[in-house]
Amino acid sequence: MVSDSPSMVEEQEKLAEGFDSFISQLDGQTDFHVGLLSASFDPANPDAGQLVAADGQSTFLTADDEFVRLFQERVRLVGLEGAGLERGLESAQLALSPNLATGVNEGFLRLEAELHIIFVSDGDDCIDCDRSDEAPVSQYVESFRSIKSDHSEVQVKAIVGLENNPCDRAYPATRYIAVATKTGGSSADICTSSWSDIMGDLGHSSTGVRASFQTSFAADIATLEVFVDELKVEEHETEGWTYDPETRYITFGADAVPDLGSEIYAVYSVLPAAGQSSTLSRLLIGG
């Protein structure tokens, strides 16, 4: 999902130029489908939620296409004349809805494939909405997860303005970041001068290498211990892991993401339900 606001001219060009770094991680080892979507949402527009493509072309790209050239063309087709009201989450939800997934966007979703949704915006979702009209972030998290029976196969990422690193070219994207966090995804700074590293990291994570794993039960974080291939990993934001009690996701930092095929164990006391005592759990959560 790429914002089509007039202020996105520089960021759209960076996305187009950085796509080669992204796709180089997938090409030859991943059977991918890539689709683009604008952030503008108008329910009265018959094309709302339709993936961006030139007339007569498929709405998504595959490894059999000239995907770098076509992706760059489609980024520019998104345009810079979008509505002032950005509803990126709603636009993505519509694009992946059953009506469009079996209609104009047919073939993009596949039963056997993971789903990665990447939001690119210098604003936030619904930033100018009437607050009474604003759907809660949790609605979109559940909507995206419902697409796959295994919720771990859905991950949202964001290239947006960060709350702890403000710049004059971007507004902190609290809603996009929240959806990414609650699905075990990551957020990157849209104000970064070069996107090659960002795009390369996104491509790497899309090959099946995962940074986030959900525990089966709510963990007492004071007792939580995490092991990768039997080696204990300490809690740390970049060199270890963090835990989100709301979503039950353990997320490894940028310098601690386990290699593909690693066995990840979590040992913890399960937070007791009302009227029950805590229990100790040792579970394989990834591998």
Commentary on this structure:
With 287 residues, this protein is an alpha+beta fold. The chain folds into 2 domains: 6-205, Rossmann fold, CATH 3.40.50; 212-286, no CATH class. The chain is built from 7 helices and 10 strands. A 4-stranded antiparallel beta sheet has the order 6-5-9-10, with no helix packed on it. A 3-stranded parallel beta sheet has the order 1-2-3. The protein has a 3-stranded antiparallel beta sheet with strand order 4-8-7, with no helix packed on it. Helix 1 (9-23) runs antiparallel to helix 2. The protein is globular, with a radius of gyration of 19 Å. The protein starts with 8 loop residues before the first helix and ends with a strand. The mean pLDDT is 84.
What would you say about this model in short?
The protein is of the alpha+beta class and 287 residues long.
Number of helical regions: 7
**Which structural class is indicated by helix and strand composition?**
alpha+beta
- Top-tier CATH class of the largest domain: Alpha Beta
Helices and strands, in order, run as: HHHHEHEHEHEEEEEEE
Find the CATH superfamily of the largest domain.
von Willebrand factor, type A domain
Number of domains: 2
Content of β-strand: 15-25%
Radius of gyration: 19 Å
Distance between the termini: 30 Å
Helical residue percent band: 10-25%
Strand order of the largest sheet: 6-5-9-10
